[in-house]
Amino acid sequence: MSAKQLEQATQATKTAFVFPGQGSQKAGMLAELAEHFVGIRETFTEASEAVGFDLWNIAQIGEELNQTEFTQPVLLTASIALWRVWLELGGVVPKYLAGHSLGEYSALVAAGAMSLADAVKLVNLRGKLMQTAVPQGQGAMAAILGLDDAKVVELCADVTANSDGSVDAANYNANGQVVIAGDKALVELVMTAAKENGGKAIGLPVSVPSHCALMKPAAEQFAEALEQTAIELPRIPVIQNVNAGIASDVVGLRTALTEQLYQSVQWTKTMDFLQNEGIEYIVECGPGNVLANLAKRLPKIEKALPLDSKNRLDDALNAILVAEGKIA
């Protein structure tokens, strides 16, 4: 679809697409859909040729799937494969795109801001840099539930002030749901403090503490790769993680992607932005349904639909076409 066609198609829609990040991967992802749509495997082949290893095999076998340098290109490729199938089937072109963490790169590829080949190479490098930024076992992440955002930030600040390390609010996923990241011992202290203040704390099975100060060394190296990558302004507006805003120039886009490595994912504000812009329908374009489930809780969202199986894809295509008045 050309830039002009995308622009015209997005003008009247009340639909936004969201792309998931790490944690949505599972062995065997998209296998069923690949039996129905040749484009799935073709997209994986295209991406595999760019990075030099078999992404489909990793996605299906799963042995290396949770190593972040492989997780990131696999998830991005899966999301773009679904996006291409959606457009091929005549699905509604969304008014906005947004991606959670890694998913921001999927959104940028879908919006024509960068090529799939460049993006999978970027996120493969991103994963490697993130993995080496913090020695194995020294970092951690945890979900804090049931406390105000400000209270979680306060607990992180208190613990950081009394130590040589750091712990930060990494993902603002929804009201009362904040993920923290940082030095493992400090994450555990915040978890204890959260429980003492009436909240819940759940440790997350991750190998890298994302979106916190520990990722600054990785961000500095990653910025160099971003400078050498061809990037254009998106043809469909992409809401950025770091500020829940839309870049007005490529310099700002590159800066936001660099800062995204060590700053919080502002997902709650992103969803608020979409609702304030009149979005009523959310489609999650990638494996799993975590983001769709979060969106279902929002007051102005009428439908939140995943695409990760043939039945779900068919249901979403039909539901959005009906909701947008494209078919009766």
Automatic annotation (TrEMBL):
Record-linked SMART domains: PKS_AT
Catalyzed reaction equations: holo-[ACP] + malonyl-CoA = malonyl-[ACP] + CoA
Positions of the catalytic residues: 101, 211
Keywords carried by this UniProt record: Acyltransferase, Transferase
One GO CC annotation: cytosol
EC number: 2.3.1.39
Superkingdom field: Bacteria
Family according to the record: Belongs to the fabD family.
Tagged with keyword DNA repair: no
Keyword Glycoprotein: no
The name this protein goes by in its record: Malonyl CoA-acyl carrier protein transacylase
One GO BP: fatty acid biosynthetic process
GO MF terms held by the record: [acyl-carrier-protein] S-malonyltransferase activity
Species of the source: Acinetobacter equi
Every Malonyl-CoA:ACP transacylase (MAT) domain range: 18-312
Pfam family, one: Acyl_transf_1
InterPro entries reported in the protein's UniProt record: Ac_transferase_dom_sf, Acyl_transferase_dom, Acyl_Trfase/lysoPLipase, Mal-CoA-ACP_Trans/PKS_FabD, Malonyl_CoA-ACP_transAc, Malonyl_CoA-ACP_transAc_FabD, Malonyl_transacylase_ACP-bd
